[in-house]
Amino acid sequence: MSTSYEAAGVDIAAGDRAVQLMKSHLAKARRPEVVHDSSGFAGLFDISAVRRFERPLLATSTDGVGTKVDLARRLGVYDTIGHDLVGMVVDDLVVSGAEPLFMTDYIACGKVVPERIAKIVSGIAEGCALAGCALVGGETAEHPGLLEPDEFDLAGAGTGVVEASRLLGPERVSPGDIVVGLASSGIHSNGYSLVRHLLRETELSLDAIVPELGRTLGEELLTPTRIYAKDCLALAWASEVHAFAHITGGGLAANLARSLPSSCDAVIERATWTPPPIFSVLESYGRVPGEEMDRTFNQGVGMTAIVGASHIDATMRLLAERGVDGWPIGEVVPGSGSVKLI
Prior knowledge:
33% of the residues lie in helices and 25% in strands. The protein is of the alpha+beta class and 342 residues long. The protein folds into two domains: 157 residues, CATH 3.30.1330.10; 172 residues, Phosphoribosyl-aminoimidazole Synthetase, Chain A, domain 2 (Alpha-Beta Complex). The strands form four sheets. A six-stranded mixed sheet has the order 10-12-7-13-11-14, sandwiched between helices. It has a four-stranded mixed sheet with strand order 3-6-4-5, covered by helices on one side. A two-stranded antiparallel sheet has the order 1-2.
């Protein structure tokens, strides 16, 4: 008896069609340094572009979207989840002050549905365009028997560059600096295991219109992660930014602490902002303790910038000019490297 790869569940023809459908989207995510590789086995990037740097440091980051992909699958919405992937990767890169140069992606699925893969990649390409980086390659893998036909997961890796003398981080932070919060677009891409638990254990439903949100819960939960890359880079060049912190898993306190030296604390005033309604909805419907909300979600602050006090007015003007909702949320004081929410 003969058999085949297709009989084992892998459809090479569908993979080829997915590649063809992707091509129309990839043009959105290019930079002039991208070099065409006719073989298609690798992405090429002309690194001579970094000659403008005296001492260029390459920065790299890799991440995924986590269990948010399960909600995208259940709702049949695939064109935003790639946007989330880019945000998770490039917004880590810019914390060091690095300019994102290029990304690659990896999509694993139980069955290649070309149109679905193309929609995912369209979101990745749009996210890269927003971040100013190129999507130079990727891989789509079909895993029959390991994943159900409608299941998928995605991850990505990005590379950026920063001038060594402009590297941002805890070493630049000192008492008197001001912590500026940049508004999140919602939950972003962290805490969805808790969200899915609440969907199983409470009356919350993805297709229910929640009055506090003004739309269905599913629509709210699939709001794409905000991409701060270009705004952070603009701040780093035009203002005295000492450090950034990307607020992801662990919440505001844990992530901001990573950008503090051991000799400083950050005192954050909760009264300076009101978290978007989605956070209170999850907290109240799920009876989630406030401390757990703080540890799990960004609570409305997706990125922080630690800025020299004398530059806070210039920082706020630049954010306003760029249409970014940001505000002072606290101050750096002498301490031991911790964050205090008061």
